[in-house]
User: Fold these one by one.
Assistant:
Number 1:
Amino acid sequence: MKLLSIAIPCYNSEAYMEKCIQSLLPGGDEVEILVIDDGSKDRTAEIADQYQEKYPNIVRSIHQPNLGHGGAVNTGIHNAQGLYFKVVDSDDWVNEESYKEILKTLEDLVKGSKTVDLLISNFVYEKQGAARKKVMQYRHCLPVNQIFTWNEVGHMPKGKYLLMHSMIYRTQLLLECNLTLPEHTFYVDNIFAFDPLPYVQNMYYLDTNFYRYFIGRDDQSVNETVMIRRIDQQLRVNKLMVNSYTSCGSMNKRTRAYMISYLDIITTISSIMLIRSGTKEALDKKKELLEYMGKGLTTIRAGYLILPAWAERPDAWRELAEAAKTAGVKVVTAGKGDELPCGKVSFSVLWPEKNATGKDVNEEAMVMELSFGDFQMLFTGDIGADTEKKLLAAGGLEDVDCLKVGHHGSRYSTTEAFLEKIKPEVAIISCSLTNTYGHPSPETVERLKEAGSQVEYTMKNGAITVETDGKKLKIGRFRKD
């Protein structure tokens, strides 16, 4: 049995496929190269046959009627005789030195006691005319040179995600999960990089720049003009990924979080292309996509969106309200003094004043107190010291069990006087690890600790959940480390 099967989907690829094949031949007899002629009308089939004749132990030439990129990958999977499976597009190539590292690593993994489902490596954007080449690497997100599980995957920023170019799957896993890409459809590489993930248990990351991803042809599917023209295919893939996610049932929560993040990226791309198209039809499709996402993905359904009743409403306010209405969520505006009952839970609006203009979106942010039994939680939006003084002067503030800290922990909020009044048992700071504002401020954190508060951070532990029976308080953290 071969160690690695490499499928090269080819359609009218005569101009560049040989560079791709030549880069893969150094793998020798451990590798099989499946050159899949997808109904080409040029010399692709002839070139494929020539390589098979010259390298019969390495190259197999497979001919089929045109089924598109997905159909060619499907053919590759079902013809693969290697323990592991890789797709290399016919206009791309691999680095020889890294290739040898990949094969040596796979050989060592096969001899080991643990079955590795996915080998990950770096890829390089070979953008035509670019002076510097961008490398997609994962050394700050994934353990390097060791077998790991989803529980050990670190934070992956939005621009950092696994693509087909960086992935080598265990062949049997692809067969067991019945991966079948749609035919006659572009952008299916996203499905290839997405659908098998719930089945992946053990992974290995090799920090080497293996795959070279060429960008520059005018007819390339990732060209913006081409993407807008083929937006219906992008939308089809987007929806198929939603369907796959919602149908996969229970899975590791880190896997789930990563897949949601990936879907967010793909949906953002779809939305941007639709917006840039600029037609009413495209904007209607964007609305329909968001509705589809809402129905398929939302596991916690929002019944209401509560917004401050500002006289002047900025674009962000209006866009949020419109998005809520599109998703079937009722929009409520409220101001100081309003009480919003919700079953056994009630919300008291403490700020802003009902005549607030909305010109200062921070100091006129909404402040609400949640009450449930003996439990009290205060949400302070982005207010700073000025508004805290006004709330103290107005009276009505009391001890709370939990505080959502104002303005992401800014040094200009959560004053000593404010904390002395509300005495929170737990304080939650919501901020990104990569924010450029320096949040949370060390001074604010110190004030919270001096007030006796247990401080929780989303930047360290991801999503923070608060559970209560109306008496006791329990904090849950997405990340335990």
Number 2:
Amino acid sequence: MFSRADIIPICYQIIIPQRSLQFEHLTDDQWQATFDLTLLSAVRLIRSVLPSMRQRQGGRIIHIVSSSVKQLIQGLLLSNAIRPGIIGLAKTLSVELAPYQITVNNVCPGRILTDRLRQGRNVLARVAQGMGEEEASQEGLRQGATDGPSPVGSAQSEYGKPFV
């Protein structure tokens, strides 16, 4: 339990490479890891801050999810399947926690042109040219984005390394 938590922003990142993975190619381990790292990690974090928020009669829980909860993103099966569960969790908790003056909200931004998005596009282009997906991903990590800096920030500059 945290001694005090006023605002908890929870940002979700599906870290299992899923581009071009069709349903029949996803393993139980990939499904479980996605569930554990997204939905279950949020449950655990919220569970750890609730006692302090309830005691103080206030707090904010903000889920930063994805626009994929409104309109699926082709090729992101794991994300499309798991993220609506986060929305359901938030909606349910918003009613349950309202008497304690704890608000629970979802923010569902669309795509933002970042180096990560550019790298994903580069990987897809390499795969379309016949390169294996793993090799294309590694090549994208080595080269980084080739289109120059993103107008809204760069994963490389903000976090020290690219995300793929």
